[in-house]
Specification:
alpha/beta; about 375 residues; 5-stranded mixed β-sheet; 13 helices
Length: about 375
């Protein structure tokens, strides 16, 4: 009941009854404890027809945002991006700190200080903040969310790092550790494009290529905690070695680093940065354009493979790489159309602007989901 009000509110009792198949009396009984404990409020609203004396006033139910506070942190090789949010994942505070090193011990120490600063911001802020429900940590790669362990993160250079255990020794707050793209998908499921969607995928393009899936009423984790690894489909030339150690992964052609490396190689400009490569492509440089075209072709093929297998009704394309989306969109869409089977080609590809704060908000959303579901948090 709380989940429905949180993700679909404000919502009248009669509408909850219609969507759940429960009686209005059953809905009222179930909601009463939520109102009494301050998680939900019942604010009377009078529609125009009621003002004319027709029908009864509607009393929609909505979550009280300040009843709970949450912290979410996105960990990258160069920085920590943290946010504090309310119960609806509305961002209250933002904090960015540079990372000195990717060594796990160094990162955990800085992460603990980062989190403590965010807790301090909650306590000293002008906005009313409820009890801290937990801390969400989002990291790229293979993450064992059940035990809070980063099993393999090529971008961080981590293998078998027990993040929840190490951080829990320094900050005595419930901790949820997630794959970053899956965390972003949870945020879109509960508070974004996925609220009214039966199925969708989130594909992120940037330093890596990630994919989160929402199918059959749930964000897909997979039997081993690994799913949607679009960036590691073997669709690129086999002579290209990926950061994961394997050959021919999509990321070897389509990640931001791969595009930059290709442009440097073909133009003979080792001094180029990504912004320079983008400018060259926009100016019509053939070698730079080829690097983006090649990326678009491989991403388009990967999207078609995913849509053919899973069949989502829409794919949201996000990530820092969307800033250059115009350079490979045409090739991406053409390749997608060539390889999507039958009605799978009707899947909508939707572009969304994206910041690192959104990644951190995704980490916070995983805490909100665990809190509402009553899942046991990780705390050492």
């Amino acid at each position: 009941m709380l989940t429905r009000i949180l993700t679909q509110g404000p919502i009248p009792r009669v509408e909850i009854a219609r969507r759940t198949g429960l009686s209005q009396a059953a809905v009222t009984k179930a909601v009463a404890p939520l109102i009494e404990t301050g998680f939900v409020t019942d604010q009377a609203a009078t529609p125009p027809e009621a003002e004319l004396g027709i029908g009864r006033p509607v009393s929609p139910l909505t979550v009280v945002p300040s009843s709970v506070s949450v912290i979410g942190v996105k960990v990258t090789p160069t920085s920590l991006i943290g946010v504090t949010t309310d119960f609806t994942a509305g961002i209250l505070n933002v904090r960015h700190d540079e990372l000195d090193d990717t060594d796990p011990d160094v990162v955990i120490e800085q992460l603990a200080e980062h989190v403590k600063a965010l807790i301090g911001a909650l306590k000293s802020g002008t906005a009313v903040a409820g009890p801290l429900a937990g801390i969400g940590i989002a990291v790229s790669g293979d993450v064992d969310a059940t035990n809070g362990v980063v099993r393999d993160s090529p971008l961080m250079g981590w293998r078998g790092v027990p993040v929840a255990e190490l951080l829990g020794k320094r900050v005595r707050v419930p901790i949820v550790v997630s794959n970053d793209v899956r965390a972003l998908t949870v945020a879109e499921h509960w508070f974004g494009v996925g609220v009214d969607a039966d199925s969708f995928a989130v594909v992120t393009i940037g330093s890596g290529i990630g994919c989160g899936l929402y199918i059959n009423g749930e964000v897909v984790s997979g039997a081993y905690g690994v799913s949607g690894e679009l960036g590691h489909l073997p669709l690129a030339p086999g002579d290209l070695v990926c950061t994961c150690g394997r050959r021919g992964c999509v990321e070897t052609v389509a990640s931001s680093d791969a595009i930059l490396a290709r442009t440097r190689e073909t133009t003979g400009r080792p001094d180029l940065d990504l912004a320079g490569a983008v400018k060259l492509a926009h100016d019509g440089n053939e070698q730079a354009r080829e690097a983006f075209d090649r990326a678009g072709e491989v991403i388009g093929a990967a999207l078609a493979a995913m849509v053919n297998l899973v069949g989502p009704e829409l794919v949201m394309i996000a990530g820092e790489g969307v800033a250059e989306y115009d350079l490979y969109e045409q090739r991406l869409r053409r390749t997608f159309a060539e390889h999507a089977f039958g009605a799978a080609g009707d899947c909508r590809l939707v572009l969304r602007s994206h910041t690192f704060d959104d990644w951190a908000r995704g980490a916070a959303a995983t805490v909100i989901r665990s809190y509402v579901r009553g899942e046991p948090p990780l705390q050492r």
